[in-house]
Structure formats: structure tokens, C-alpha cells
Amino acid sequence: MIKKWGLLFVFLFLAGTVVTSGCVSQQSTPQTTPVPSGTQTGTGTTVPTIKQPTPVSIPATGVFVKVSYLGAFNGTYGIDDVTQKVRNSGDRLYSIDNTTGNVSATFYKEDRSLHNLTVEIWKDSKLLTSATNSSAFGRASVIYQL
What we know:
Blueprint: H1 2-21, E1 38-40, E2 46-48, E3 63-79, E4 82-96, E5 102-109, E6 117-123, E7 126-133, E8 139-145
Antiparallel strand pairs: 1-2, 3-4, 3-5, 3-6, 5-8, 6-7
């Protein structure tokens, strides 16, 4: 009699393991796949909406380094051997206090997107030089002697 109960217990244990492991189909509600928000195209697909950064205004006077990138970036900017390290995203404007010497700026993308990273040097609302890179983890570097 104990042998029958033991076999029944083993059978029920194995049957329960098979059912809970997913090897046997169970009736359930259909699963839905989350869809990212964005603009519907009419073809049943969703196109993600990319938020464009707010453009920065270049002041009428002064020396500035402008960095533009949709994602995160990091780098350094400054004049001669005095540089600042920054990490940010979007359109950013960095002021250069001393207006004589070699202004330099080097920035790196922190992701593998193919969007443009642009670095520019401005003086008195005039663009002096710029560099752009669209490669993954790309680098854009500029230097200009004032």
C-alpha cells in the first residue's frame, strides 16, 4: 500500500513540474507586446519621435564653444593649457573668458548613434571654425588661434 502511495506521489510531482514548466500548453489570455510611443505611419508600424534640442543663441560679443548633439557627450574646452572638463547633452554653449591664445575643444559621443556631434568656436557672433562627426562614439575637435 505504501508503495502505491509513493508511486502516486512521484507521478503527481512530475506532472506538476511538467505543467508549471510550460511544457504543456495552458489556456491563458493572449500576451501583448508593448509598442513604443511615437507617430503612427499608417502601415501598422510606429516611428519613434526624437525630441530635438532647444537651439542656443550666440551672444553678440565674446568667445564661445558651442556643442550640439542629441545624446550624451563629454570633453574638454579652453584656451591654451587651461581647460574645463564637461559632460552634457543637447545644444550647449561654453564661454571662454580670456580672449587671446589658442582656443581648443574636443568632444566625444557617449553612444554608438550615427547622429552628428558638432563642435564650433564663435567670436562676436561669427563662426570661426567647426567640426562634425557622425560615427559611433565619434570625436569632434577644433582649435583656433585668437
